[in-house]
Amino acid sequence: MSRSMKRLSLEAAAVILSILIFWIPLYFVLVNALKDAPGASELTISWPSTVHLWSNLKEVVIANDYMLLRAFYNSTLLTILSIVLMVMVCAMAGFIMHRRSDRLTPVIGFFVLAGLIIPPAIVPTIWVLDNLQLFKTMTGIVLVEVALGFPFGVILFRNFMGGIPREIDEAAIIDGCGGFRLFFRIILPLLKPVTATMIVTSSVSIFNDFVNPLYFFPGSENVTVQLTLYNFMSQYTTQYNLLFMNILVITVPLLILFLFFNNKIVSGMTAGSVKG
């Protein structure tokens, strides 16, 4: 088999695999979100004879005193605050780790890498947040999200920093730039590709986070979008049409964001890997 045929076969296999893994489940959610309660309870992929788009959407929005709208506000605020803090902290840490070369650098790199491997401890984290009076607060859950995303962000920024010549730092210092001015006025604008990658990937992860808000940000007033799925699930019954409509509503915005910034994600990840 020629090289072109092998490449074509791999591309076809990748397309088929993506259809099986991603598009078929999305289609399953879509068709059941458009059905009435009896039709959705059958859990089939057949197109509904009668579309109930607006009635299902209205019921999802008004459920539990408009909980979905409150959840969108909480998730959006959580995502924005976490991303802003994460980008700043990870970019500065990545800059220092790449430019610094001493005996502590490998040790620090080891602990950053360990953060990707070691799972978070739920109970001790709740104890720490409670003693700091940050449990069930937006500040507390933001710090948790930043801490969990910190290792990946630092590695991403550190690798990308390899493509920025050290001569830029030296020239800026000779011109009288201090450390913070050097970073924010010169280095940070050069990090736009990897910053875009960090923003999009982390936004999807934080906005779709289910476990951390469940443990560290409980309460009906603190509900996030993923936790609204409980509105239509109980021990004895599940309203599948409304459940799937809820899933569709909270998935579409991030799907559009991901598709729109797909090229930026790929370019940022590629640039970081090559320049590292």
UniProtKB/TrEMBL annotation:
Membrane spanning residue stretches: 12-34, 76-96, 108-129, 141-161, 182-207, 240-261
Keyword Transmembrane helix applies: yes
Domain spans labelled ABC transmembrane type-1: 72-261
Signal peptide stretch: none
Localization per record: Cell membrane
Topology with respect to the bilayer: Multi-pass membrane protein
GO BP annotation list: transmembrane transport
The entry's keywords: Cell membrane, Membrane, Transmembrane, Transmembrane helix, Transport
UniProt keyword annotation of Metal-binding present: no
GO annotation, cellular component aspect: plasma membrane
InterPro entries for this protein: MetI-like, MetI-like_sf
PANTHER family attached to this UniProt entry: ABC TRANSPORTER PERMEASE PROTEIN MG189-RELATED, ABC TRANSPORTER PERMEASE PROTEIN MG189-RELATED-RELATED
Family classification: Belongs to the binding-protein-dependent transport system permease family.
Protein name: Carbohydrate ABC transporter permease
Originating organism: Cohnella thailandensis
Species lineage: Bacteria, Bacillati, Bacillota, Bacilli, Bacillales
